[in-house]
Amino acid sequence: MPNMGPMGMEKAAPVLYEAEPQHTAMVMEVRDRVMNMCGGHMHKYVCVQMVDGHIYEGRIMHIDHCVLYLQCTMRDSRAFMNSYNAVLPLILYELLVITLLST
């Protein structure tokens, strides 16, 4: 339901957060640079480190506007089968390092 003010006029919702224009420009620049770089390494085996410290190894399967899709072999000691394949969607602007593991 719209946020209505006096006399039935719709009020603007309060803004909780608004990115600074410099931050937005930097994020878009990084996203475009990573997207262009990854496009030339499709289906190659890489190691990806995220800004939060998580590290993933796998093949670059697809890349779109904001997401890198990495096919990984996941290992779980609790599972009856030792490993299974998963495709992880990783946000481009959260990537810290991408290392090419094989050529």
Question: Could you characterize the architecture of this molecule?
Answer:
With 103 residues, the protein is α+β, with helices and mostly antiparallel strands. Helices cover 18% and strands 38% of the residues. The model has no long low-confidence stretch (mean pLDDT 82). It is elongated and about 65 Å long. The protein has a five-stranded antiparallel beta sheet.
Distinctive features:
1 helix; single chain; 103 residues; alpha+beta; elongated; 5-stranded antiparallel β-sheet
Structure summary:
The protein has 103 residues and is an alpha+beta fold. The protein has one helix and five strands; from the N terminus they run αβββββ. Strands 4-3-2-1-5 form a five-stranded antiparallel beta sheet.
User: Could you give a short account of the major beta sheet?
Assistant: 5 strands, antiparallel
The total count of strands amounts to: 5
Question: Count of helices?
Answer: 1
| Distance between the amino and carboxyl termini | 55 Å
Gross morphology:
elongated
Provide the succession of SSEs: HEEEEE
- Relative strand content: 35-45%
Q: Write down the overall mean pLDDT.
A: 82
- Biggest sheet strand order reads 4-3-2-1-5
Fraction of residues in helices? 10-25%
The rounded Rg comes to: 20 Å
Low-confidence stretches: none
Oligomer: single chain
SS-based class = alpha+beta
Please give the structural blueprint:
Blueprint: H1 21-39, E1 45-50, E2 55-63, E3 67-75, E4 83-91, E5 95-100
Antiparallel strand pairs: 1-2, 1-5, 2-3, 3-4
